[in-house]
Amino acid sequence: MDLTRSPDWNHIRAFLTTAEEGSLSAAARRLGLTQPTLSRQVAALEQALGVMLFERPGRALALTQAGHELLAHSRQMGAAATALSLSATGQANRIEGRVSITASELLSSFMLPPVLHRLRQMAPKLEIDVVATNDIRDLMKREADIAIRHVRPDQPELIARLVREGTAHFYAATSYLDRRGRPQSQQDLASHDFVGFGNNAEMIAHAAHHGVTLSPAQFSINSSNGLVAWELVRSGFGISPMYDGAAQQTKGVERVMPWVETIRFPFWLTSHRELHTSRKIRLVFDLLAEVLSTPE
User: Fold this and answer.
1) Which of 17, 37, 115, 252 is 20 to 30 Å from 173 at the Cα level?
2) Backbone angles phi, psi at 169, to 5 degrees
């Protein structure tokens, strides 16, 4: 790698778009390039960096370890380029109108506020509507402009960007643990209560997938509202799995069941292809991607 020369932004953008789309053909369509041109740009970046960014098992594309490492930096560059362009032309301050973001109640409460503060600074005339719900809102029906989901949508009309991998562990209130004891093994769990987040049968199945055996009788209290369920945990009603980012912002709770492996789940940022051409939605989408992809 020649350290005296910075990689070409067009090559980085080609890599970033290919990684997000998952194929050269889809990335070429999004950038308005031919597939051979896009392929040459990705190859030029690999040559300039002296690393392989993609593996090509059959017709599929898979990021290498080097590709994963470069992806986070490329996203930050993309968001910075968008912000620089808007700032240079004064467009950010002129962007106005309404943009709706849908996410779960917990993510809306614990993850979105920092993004909204930055949006207020960048585009003070923008109106943001946060649709906090655990239901999957239908972007195809324009129920929201941007969605944060834990599953990748399969509709071709939607753009989906994998922005991070979240982690979760089991937590309980210190008051509960002082009263009931801190479980050190699967055998200890039989005497403990759990707080349900909506569908207890699904929660029991997910727990079993991670080597934790629970029974319906252990779920004496439940709420389909994520914030209410988490408040019940914080108030000392029992144990529950929780996204680490939310748990770390909650006073009075402790991580428990240290023998259970880390629970991992994806964060997909999704928007409609047509809506994604809107300056205001692009601004919000890119800022969300930048903030969500930043390691905690």
Assistant:
1) 115
2) -140, 175
